[in-house]
Amino acid sequence: MDELMNLSEANLAKLPEAVRRPTYDRSGLTAGIVHIGLGNFHRAHQAWYLHRLFDMGLGHDWAIIGAGVRAGDALQRDRLLAQDCLTTLLELDPSGKSAEVCGSMIGFVPVEEDNAALIAQMADPAIRIVSLTVTEGGYFIDPATGGFDASNGDILHDAANPDAPHTAFGAIIAALRLRRDAGIAPFTCMSCDNLQGNGTVMRQTVVTLARLSDPDLADWIDANSAFPNSMVDCIVPATGPNEIALAREFGIADKAPVTHENFRQWVIEDAFCNGRPDLDKVGATFTPDVHDFEAMKIRMLNGGHQVLAAAGDLLGLETIAQCMAHAPIRNLLRRVEAEEIAPMVKPVPGMTPLEYLDLIDRRFSNPKIKDTTRRVAFDGSSRQPGFITPTVRGGLEIGTTVEGLALVSAIWARYCYGTRMDGSVIAPNDPNWETLTVVAAKAKDDPMEWLRMTAIYGDLVDHARFAETFCRWLSMIHADGVEAAIAVYLDS
């Protein structure tokens, strides 16, 4: 191993030659984007595209200022500021691994309860885009209706205290109010989360929340700001000791490195209100119609992850790649995808749904990517209605089978029972875990109890074809085990 270097601006030139590092002068960058939610995905995806654009000598006024609205984000801020907001990106492929230092982020605003520093930063006229990765469960959506959930405590606070908001969306509204009052053009609000129509959802959240306190401002935002839809894709595991050790193998002491696969995709609706970087020059796709790309990725890749994760964790499989090496689980994935999910998806330029299935099969099977079943199974109460139940509804509507998707839902219900098939305890893995485990215990004797969670399933409890199939699978899983149920499905 080369001499270990602390990651910093001063040490960039001293890093081993094998490590790709910025070729641009970071002191010449100026901020054009505030990004809220500085997790691994953003740093391996959106930040990388900008980094590569800067490497081309372009767009140096589009650097990123990081932000967070949760108390825990302050720890990430400390880690990143200590290394000058640099991140080591570690690409892991079956053919080998490589390291690259990403330098597109140049600051991180203080994390405060009233978000005052964040609001001031977003009110700066230089900021023309505010982007977010706050997870699909972070947009205050009522799963039963798809509308805005105005009953949340933080939303009620922001409506009553618009100048001292708790949420990212309240902070965005406060900043847009300052810009309107000063005669400054609004910024584009860009969601980078895995939601069908994520821009449309973000518009709903921002405009509806604004309307609770200032209807005139809500109208101004709706008419003048922009909320482009986008599809983002890259498999990015969580960081732990192994990832930190891997960075050290490249001679880099990085407290927050990121591992990722050798694949990225970013498809963006070309609908911005205040300029945009030329991300198409580094591989992003601008299009007036992103929805077919969104549907393919969300239903097949994100939905496919949900097919695998709970089943794998119940059987003691630690990673998605191990699930793909487990023949029954891999065959479950391929059959559910081919028979029940792909019929709901349109082809996109250069890719049919079945070709996309082969692509995600290869990506999920990459043994170098240590993407854990626990991470992928997290927050099923948002991911099931986000990635699974819309396809169930589509199948019920057009008359295709929903046997496999009902089994997937039953496996998740058994997962929320809280023990693996070997009896070991599953640590809480959902924001609503306490409620889910109570309902899962009741559903062992009365499976319909699970489907009565209308916040997740809406009216699916009233659709006999799905409900009866779900109940049969859940009863079988409790009686005979997950592997037995999967075997019956595959033999049918």
Number of domains: 2
CATH architecture of the largest domain: 3-Layer(aba) Sandwich
Average pLDDT, rounded to a whole number, is 96
Using the coordinates shown, work out and report the CATH topology of the largest domain. Rossmann fold
CATH H-level superfamily of the largest domain:
NAD(P)-binding Rossmann-like Domain
Number of helices: 21
**Level-1 CATH class name of the largest domain:** Alpha Beta
Distance between the termini: 54 Å
The side-by-side strand order for the widest beta sheet comes to 6-3-2-7-8
Radius of gyration: 23 Å
Shape: globular
Computed structural class: alpha/beta
Could you describe the largest sheet, including whether it forms a barrel? Answer: 5 strands, parallel
The count of strands amounts to 13
DSSP strand (E) fraction? 5-15%
**pLDDT < 50 runs, ≥5 residues:** none
- Helicity, in percent? 40-55%
Topology record:
Elements: E1 5-6, E2 31-36, H1 40-44, H2 46-55, E3 63-67, H3 73-82, E4 87-93, E5 96-102, E6 105-108, H4 116-123, E7 129-132, H5 153-160, H6 168-182, E8 188-191, H7 198-213, H8 215-224, E9 230-233, H9 241-249, E10 252-253, E11 258-260, E12 265-269, E13 285-287, H10 291-314, H11 320-325, H12 327-341, H13 353-364, H14 373-377, H15 380-398, H16 403-415, H17 433-445, H18 448-451, H19 454-457, H20 464-480, H21 482-491
Parallel strand pairs: 1-10, 2-3, 2-7, 3-6, 4-11, 7-8, 12-13
Antiparallel strand pairs: 4-5, 9-12
Helix pairs in contact: 4-6, 5-7, 6-7, 7-8, 10-12, 10-15, 10-16, 12-13, 12-21, 15-16, 16-20, 16-21, 20-21
Entry summary:
With 492 residues, this protein is an alpha/beta fold. It is built from 21 helices and 13 strands.
